[in-house]
Specification:
Layout: E1 4-12, E2 15-21, E3 26-30, H1 37-49, E4 68-75, E5 78-85, E6 88-93, E7 96-97, E8 110-113, H2 119-122, H3 125-139, H4 141-163, H5 169-212, E9 218-223, H6 231-237, H7 239-245, E10 256-261, E11 264-265, H8 266-269, H9 272-292, E12 298-301, H10 304-307, H11 310-320, E13 327-332, H12 335-342, E14 350-353
Parallel strand pairs: 3-13, 3-14, 8-12, 12-13
Antiparallel strand pairs: 1-2, 1-4, 4-5, 5-6, 6-7, 9-10, 10-11
Helix pairs in contact: 3-4, 4-5, 5-6, 5-9, 5-11
């Protein structure tokens, strides 16, 4: 079983040079707001995925006034080190550099439940694509390779459209090349997204009923751009508009998932409580999906005691007892409240106070 025994964070967010050791499968990280509880959870997430859950720009992860950071974790006999300095990221496993980041993704998995997850419902399609892409990348290294290749050729195609922007003949031959590459790599993305989208709704519905105690029907509907074999024709058909608008207007990078309640958009028709139940159910489905692949994820619960009512919270902890997890890390401002709430489910929880 993967078990995070120790983590050292240097110049990461508000940590200058700190080391934390863990001896329990359940860890409560406590302290006042602003002491770094969420940052510690994010450092654990970073060790799994070599990226932050909360920050898209690496520079924002470095402590103010510094040019980089280092995160080191010990999982049993294995040591993982992530370093970022002056725009360059390196990743080590037991002292040896990975040649590609994709070699590490999927080795350790984590599921985060955080207050800002509500944006998955309320904001634009990019966040939902990132969620689905992240889930598939954890289970299939080839998916991640195809996704990265697709993104590379998409960026090159968009750069060409911005630079040329006219109807010159030579731009069409170059666009043909990019369209072939996007269709080739995008076909696998659409294919795997279809498979996942056929399986995940039933899991979400199952957990939603258990978390909320309600009988509403919830779901996810995949809004694909085209079938896997129709992508080249789709790009060809959109070319005139792409040249006019100087960007690629259609393809797997524009797809979305509609979250529903009683067949209506969740964003518009669900209450705040229903949205929270849906998000927790989505994350539990994520855990179940990973378990089906033989993985035991780390569960990172950020500030959920402040965001979930007690009924949903207790339902969540009861459901977690049925999950196969490596470790559970949770943050809360009150050590006493955390202990009282969690004790029936995690009797030997370790408390890690920050800022004391």
């Amino acid at each position: 079983m993967s078990f995070l025994e120790k983590i050292s964070v240097t110049q990461f967010r508000n940590f200058t040079a700190d080391t934390f050791t863990f001896q329990s499968p359940a860890v409560g990280i406590t302290g006042l707001n602003g002491v770094g509880k969420t940052n510690l959870l994010d450092a654990i997430y970073y060790l799994c995925y070599t990226k932050s859950y909360f920050q898209s720009r690496e520079l924002n992860n470095a402590q103010r006034g510094t040019a980089g950071f280092r995160i080191e974790g010990r999982f049993g006999e294995e040591q993982i080190v992530c370093k970022w300095k002056e725009g360059k990221k390196t990743l080590e496993h037991d002292g040896a550099l990975y040649e590609k980041v994709t070699e590490h993704i999927g080795k350790y998995t984590a599921v985060m439940i955080a207050p800002d997850d509500i944006e998955l419902i309320n904001e634009g399609s990019e966040l939902r694509r990132k969620f689905i892409d992240g889930l598939l990348s954890q289970s299939d290294p080839f998916y991640l390779e195809q996704l990265l290749a697709y993104q590379k050729y998409l960026a090159q195609r968009n750069a060409l459209l911005r630079q040329q922007g006219g109807q010159q003949q030579h731009i069409h031959s170059l666009l043909d090349v990019y369209d072939q590459q996007l269709a080739q790599h995008g076909a696998y993305l659409v294919q795997e997204r279809e498979k996942l989208s056929a399986q995940i709704p039933a899991l979400v519905q199952q957990y939603y009923a258990a978390v909320s105690g309600d009988a509403e029907r919830v779901g996810l509907q995949y809004r694909r751009c085209a079938g896997p074999q129709q992508l080249f024709a789709l790009l060809q058909g959109s070319r005139r508009r792409d040249i006019e608008y100087k960007r690629t207007l259609t393809g797997p990078h524009t797809e979305d998932w509609l979250f529903t309640i009683e067949d209506c958009p969740l964003k518009s028709y669900a209450s705040q409580g229903q949205k929270k139940s849906f998000l927790v159910s989505l994350k539990l489905a994520h855990i179940s999906w990973l378990q089906g692949l033989g993985k035991k994820p780390f569960l990172l619960l950020d500030d959920i005691f402040e965001k979930l009512d007690r009924r949903r919270l207790l339902h969540l902890f009861a459901l977690l007892q049925q999950c196969s997890l490596s470790q559970v890390f949770m943050t809360h401002t009150s050590a006493e409240d955390l202990t009282q709430t969690v004790h029936p489910y995690y009797k030997d929880m370790q408390l890690v106070p920050l800022g004391s």
